[in-house]
Write a structure and sequence with these properties.
This is Thioredoxin peroxidase. The active site is at residue 51. InterPro entries: AhpC/TSA, Peroxiredoxin, Peroxiredoxin_AhpC-typ, Peroxiredoxin_C, Thioredoxin-like_sf, Thioredoxin_domain. Belongs to the peroxiredoxin family. AhpC/Prx1 subfamily. The chain is α+β, with helices and mostly antiparallel strands and 211 residues long. The protein has 2 domains: 14-161, Glutaredoxin (3-Layer(aba) Sandwich), CATH 3.40.30.10; 164-211, no CATH class. Helices cover 28% and strands 23% of the residues. The chain is built from 6 helices and 9 strands; from the N terminus they run βββααβαβαββββαα. The protein has helices at 50-60, 62-67, 80-88, 110-114, 165-181, 200-210; strands spanning 14-18, 22-27, 37-42, 70-76, 103-105, 121-124, 130-133, 140-145, 151-157. The strands form 2 sheets. A 7-stranded mixed β-sheet has the order 2-1-5-4-3-8-9. The chain has a two-stranded antiparallel ribbon with strand order 6-7.
Length: 211
Amino acid sequence: MAVLVGKKAPVFNVSAVVNGNEIVENFSLEQFIGKKYVIFFFYPADFTFVCPTELIAFQDQIAEFESRNVAVVGASTDSAFSHWKWLQTPQNQGGIQGVKYPIISDQTLMVSKNYDVLAGDTDYNDFGEEIFVGAPQAYRGLFLIDKEGIVRHQVVNDMPLGRSVEETLRLVDALQFTEEFGEVCPANWKKGKEGLKATQEGISDYLSHSH
């Protein structure tokens, strides 16, 4: 699997649904460079079971992300129309009505491939033609991208395993803490706790206070 941490997030320009009801062309994360952090996450498919719980959970915490200057963007290999239809479907009927952050359409599979979260694989038939083997869906990949467009955190779950929105917020807090104070964040660090100076004296001081 590709490790993108420390590298520029792969660029793309695709269709997306924004504000829960508007299909737009030429959506790109580059619009956020220099302005916002980005949580960019993939999910396998619209109209499934674990996926709506995740998308709704991110929407439920959207004010927390916005207060940290973070844009949340979802992605799957479904069409923009499929996204739009799912967004119009009430939550008590399996839909995600009320989700307002952008959801991109990766029908060409290129975005999922570039972020290395695409399940299945490519092979060749007897005629030398490229074919796709498996379900052309994305694993549950999540990427934290800083304001310079650099990936600072990534995690990829198998399809049955839902992610923690609280842990995602914790990692945003940790990144912003290190950027502001120049200190590092030890195990299980949470916002409001002390950081750790990256020296032997700092480590000793931290350990003496935490026990």
